Amino acid sequence: MLSPLTISLDAMGGDAGPEMVIPGAAVALERRPDLSFILYGQESEVKPLLDRHPSVARAARFVHCDVAVRMDDKPSQALRVGRWKSSMWRSIQAVRDGEAHVAVSAGNTGALMAMSKFCLKTPPGIERPAIAAMWPTLRGESIVLDVGATIGSDARMLVHFAVMGAAMARALFGLERPTVGLLNIGAEEVKGVEEVREAGHILRELDHPNFHYHGFVEGDDLGKGTVDVVVTEGFAGNIALKTAEGTARQISEYLRSAMTRTLAAKVGYFFARSAFQRLREKMDPRKVNGGLFLGLNGLVVKSHGGTDAEGFASAVELGREMVLGDLTRQIASDLRYTFGDGETSGASAEAAPA
Amino acid sequence: MLSPLTISLDAMGGDAGPEMVIPGAAVALERRPDLSFILYGQESEVKPLLDRHPSVARAARFVHCDVAVRMDDKPSQALRVGRWKSSMWRSIQAVRDGEAHVAVSAGNTGALMAMSKFCLKTPPGIERPAIAAMWPTLRGESIVLDVGATIGSDARMLVHFAVMGAAMARALFGLERPTVGLLNIGAEEVKGVEEVREAGHILRELDHPNFHYHGFVEGDDLGKGTVDVVVTEGFAGNIALKTAEGTARQISEYLRSAMTRTLAAKVGYFFARSAFQRLREKMDPRKVNGGLFLGLNGLVVKSHGGTDAEGFASAVELGREMVLGDLTRQIASDLRYTFGDGETSGASAEAAPA
Questions:
Q1: Which residue of B has its CA nearest to A277?
Q2: Would residue A43 count as lying in a domain?
Q3: Which H or E element spans position A146?
Q4: Cα dihedral sign for A178, A183, A189, A194?
Q5: Closest Cα of chain B to A342: distance in Å?
Q6: In a domain, B353, yes or no
């Protein structure tokens, strides 16, 4: 029987593989003792780590897999080599087969998305899944999607993203009617691209009971937290995400260099060290680690490949929240409202890549 | 006769208009006494300010204009009302007529671009001008273009941007052969959009003597300063720019709040105040104020509308550097090399918007 919160883990994913995943599962268990795991991976690598983390061993069932998808495998290559048998595939399949509520992998994004689409398929009406990221803001956190799964979305896809992102915000933030904005650029007579304007018209007319469409937002609204959900196509979304990460690192570097330059600065740093600690925590990318794949018949969370145990635990917790929020069912119901039964029951016999 | 460095100023541009522009000209003159100005604006507003800034009055010729383009005018509206006679138009016309070397305006971006295209036209072979922004990096500064003039550029346009941005880097940074990267997203099998990949092929084959094509860069390479020139189409470029600005403001806010929370933090701040001052200077957006319009038969600099005198002076200085670097001629020659005489002598009878 499926225990209340079972998470399937691709133990081989990430730059450090099981060395990061198993300790990450241990951190997640400390914070959320209600979790249980199914671990997929290479026995020779995983077993010694389970001996060192008995809490994980107790809460997990281990399944040996011969194949591990490499971080630099191309999606088509990963599908060819790793379908049916890799730890990544098996962790997703566990969700499909109802053995786990959500899969978490720190493996290669392209491969994970290709396998997730192939294994879980998209629900009726959805053409392409998106990756939703958590974005720290001055008001708390927002959700931004898509941050890289799709390139060049049409108006209909942007509307899907809005509906799915809003459902995620309801589940994650406990909001009745989160606000949704479309990422655009200002200053020009013709404001932004045609698809974005058309999506704006549709969302305005839709007047969805489960979210409030705010209108267009610009790049600087992301950090302000102007809206709970920011919708964009994946090229611009990925560039925005990486630009923000890069800017945060750049400023941290400026700060570090300024604070170690003079004796007075070092003294000041000493006094203010707890303030700096707070700042570091605020800016800690591990706290918002985890991109959720939206638009699949099942939940998959992608953890950053280079994260550590703390960061991986955040990705696991994100998956847990989505299970508790019954996200997959919520999205299906919101999409039905949005497009009616006629449309959502049509098509989407999406072909797998490869 | 045209004195060595004459800059035409739209005195009415910007949120504060002449109240910001005239003091800005005074700051620029203090730093660069070789400048002379032609000031276009409303006499009743500009004259009293010239009385208070005699240095500017001495270095400037004033030309009264009845019309001022408003910050919220649409480009077509601005052209209809302000062509031939507004302070914005006249400052650009001064460049066309050889009365000034470069025009600087803090007025509305869309209107300034529309008027610049209409008045100065694009050189042979260039379809659409771009806006190039200065980007502070860990290595110093980079140039990023386009940050919002074009939406959806084809491969040929991206190659133009690369050539023009590299010429700007040569003039501004004094580099023999600056490095150029194409902004893209990673992780996917099909790396980024078709246009970007095609532009990459062309740039690789071109192997231009005046710049080195580095390859693709991602959003986090912007802050690192991986390349001297980052090329992208305007939608993603504008979102990246505003996202970085927003992230910088967000972190400043975190820092301010952390440093004022406890007594120890305040004491620390007191000791480290010169370090914080350094940090503030590093992050001061006024120092990189000024977007250069590239791809016109003449130089136009757009200052941020909400900047102050310090920031406006930076935009004026950017214009001055471009004049000294003989940028317009350098770009013409680099484009001739790139596409040969045959291609550049063709077409580009670009129709004006409106």
A1: B258
A2: yes
A3: none
A4: negative
A5: 33
A6: no
Residues B213 and B111 in one domain: no
Q: Please tell me which of the candidates B223, B271, B276 has its beta carbon nearest to residue A271.
A: B271
Q: Looking at the 3D structure of chain A, how many domains does it have?
A: 2
Let me know whether B169 and B77 are in one domain: no
Q: Are A293 and A117 in contact (CB under 8 A)?
A: no
Q: Which residue of B has its CA nearest to A304?
A: B187
Domain encompassing residue B20: 6-125+296-305
Q: Which of A117, A235, A283 to mutate to test the interface with B (most CBs of B within 10 A)?
A: A235
Residue B153 has which token pair?
């550029």
Chain A residues whose beta carbon lies within 8 Å of the beta carbon of residue B75: 188-189
Q: Which of A136, A235, A278 sits opposite B192 (nearest CB)?
A: A235
Give yes or no: residues A164 and A301 share one domain.
no
Q: Pick from B220, B273, B276: which is nearest to A242 by CB? A: B220
Rounded CA-CA distance A188/A186 in Å is 6
Contact (CB<8Å) A282/B222: no
The last residue of a domain, from among A286, A315, A336: A286
Tracing tokens 């596409």 back to the chain, one arrives at B339
Is A334 within a domain?
A: no
Q: For residues A136 and A216, state if they share a domain.
A: yes
Alpha-carbon torsion, ordered A336, A338, A344, A350, to 10 deg = -120
Residue A189: list chain B partners with CB under 8 A.
Answer: 74-76, 110, 114, 353
If asked whether residues A150 and A78 sit together in one domain, one would say no
DSSP-assigned letters across all residues of B60-115: EEEEE-SB---TT--HHHHHHHHTTTBHHHHHHHHHHTTS-SEEEE-S-HHHHHHH
pLDDT in tens, chain A (354 residues): 456 799 999 999 999 999 999 999 999 999 999 999 999 999 999 999 999 999 999 999 999 999 999 988 888 889 998 888 999 999 999 999 999 999 999 999 999 999 999 999 999 888 899 999 999 999 999 999 999 898 888 999 999 999 999 999 999 999 999 999 999 997 454 567 889 999 999 999 999 999 999 999 999 999 999 999 999 999 999 999 999 999 998 888 888 888 888 888 888 888 888 888 888 888 788 888 889 999 999 999 999 999 999 999 999 999 999 999 989 888 888 888 877 754 443 333 333 333
Is A145 found in the same domain as A77? no
Of B114, B239, B272, the CB nearest to A236: B239
Give dist(CA B42, CA B18) in Å, integer. Answer: 9
Q: What are phi and psi of B261, to 5 degrees?
A: -85, -40
CA atoms of B102 and B95, how far apart (whole Å): 6
- The residue of chain B with its CA nearest to that of A278 is B258
Supply the DSSP symbol for A352.
Answer: P
Q: Which of A243, A258, A271 sits opposite B243 (nearest CB)?
A: A243
Same domain, yes or no, for A183 and A238?
A: yes
Contacts of A71 in chain B (CB under 8 A): none
| Interchain contact, B240 vs A219, CB within 8 Å | yes
Q: Say yes or no for a CB contact (<8 Å) between B219 and A74.
A: no
DSSP code of B288?
G
Q: Do both B235 and B175 map to the same domain? A: yes
Cβ within 8 Å, pair A279-B264: no
Q: Give a yes or no: residue B340 inside a domain.
A: no
Whole-prediction pTM: 0.89
Kindly state the tokens that stand for B192: 């980024």
**In A, which residues are within 8 Å of B353 by CB distance?**
189
Q: What is the CATH number for B121?
A: 3.40.718.10
Question: How distant is the Cα of A97 from the closest Cα of chain B, in angstroms?
Answer: 27
Determine whether the interchain pair B220/A239 forms a contact, defined as Cβ–Cβ distance below 8 Å. Answer: no
Smallest CA–CA distance from B221 into chain A, residue: A246
Interface pTM, i.e. ipTM: 0.87
